[in-house]
Design a protein that fits this description.
single chain; about 110 residues; mainly alpha; Histone Acetyltransferase, Chain A; 7 helices; about 0% strand
Length: about 110
Amino acid sequence: MRVPLTVGAIWQVDAKALGLKDYHEIITQPMDLGTVTSNLNAGKYQKEGDFFQDVMLTFNNAMKYNSEDNPIHLLAVQLKKKFRDSWSKARPDSDLNEALDSHELNGTCTWISM
């Protein structure tokens, strides 16, 4: 069983309630857009790279846990690309853009340290 689309793509995954016994074995750094929003609103992001990394981690986790033919995985791929493109347009002078161009974004983005 994989995460339902609306839950996995946006909100925190309650692995126990969803019966996902292997979730925390596969996803060792859970992150979701609800937590990103809360952190942003609370001023917890001191650097733009921290925010960027958490958003990317959300998409990477969805892609890692769900098979490539799963709707959540496919949505995460699309959202990740949209976020990357939007970031590049909104922050054209960001040092993250060079990192984006020089790295494959399949991992958890631990290489970002801005």
